[in-house]
Amino acid sequence: MSERDARATAVRSWTQRELLRLMDVRPEGEGRYLAPAHGPTERNVVEAGQILGAAVVAAAKEVPHQRVTSVSMIFARIAEHEAPLDISVETLRTGRTFTTAQVRIGQREQLCATGLVLLDAGAPDLVRDAEEPPRVPPPETLRPLAIAGAEVEGRDMRVVDDAYDPDPDRIGPPELFVWTRFRDAPGHERLHAALLSQSTTHWTVAAALRPHAGFGEAMAHRSISTGITMATITFHDEADVSRWLLYATRATYTGRGQAHSEGRVHAQDGRLVASYTVHAMVRGFPSTRRASGPLL
Q1: Which among 46, 48, 41, 30 is positioned nearest to 8, based on CA atoms?
Q2: Span 222-261, pLDDT tens digits
Q3: Taking every annotated instance into account, which residue ranges of this chain make up the domain Acyl-CoA thioesterase-like C-terminal (predicted)?
Q4: Residue pair 226/205 in contact by the 8 Å Cβ criterion
Q5: Domain ranges of the chain
Q6: Would the pTM of this model clear 0.85, i.e. be above it?
């Protein structure tokens, strides 16, 4: 068997169970966790959303008596699917109400991502108000997203107006509305939060490129260099990822080789369950470098 055939045989398929295996990090000592390797893939780059989800789980396990409220991470360099991720969680301050922790994620003794996590002991409503969900068609009326590389067994994604389109000449406003649902409900709140986080970084580049004819998501990592550089997610209400969640992403700025987006996650009953912001790199490849992958 050739080396290429051996690698193809070793490829592990993308499933809901596999996403949970990768993000449900295991303890490796005081303040230390390990995220396992996925293995050989066509594009050997771990998604920022997966790293964000792993950080959520690590912080939740480190401070189990409080709920992860917000995570903000900078992605400093690529992490590869073919090696595990080393995660450290340092509790900077522990209080009866809030805890602040720093998470560092590395691979082969190189820092890949770092961020801050806020955890909360919880409290009843004093008052309550939230942004209303956008008026979009319900998921039952939309077609499942069926683009190679975007499919995960056990996850159903449906894009309003089929706007996540590989055609670079189809233009529209800088926004995407995506219904997402997983087949099975994971057994712990932190795993719901991890799966919810994993999808937040998917839509910024596509939304930013939509208004510009001749540019599209299908060009990412091939003829244009893209990558997620920073992401923040704040969890508001409880979310069940086995029920439909609407990700509403709008690119608020694109220019100078960057794109920035703001997003909301609404349950189908209208509740706002999370908010997120994403910063991305969107630029041409240097003329001296082959277009084989992102700079980040």
Answers
A1: 41
A2: 788 899 999 999 999 999 999 999 999 999 999 999 999 9
A3: 152-277
A4: yes
A5: 16-122+137-284
A6: yes
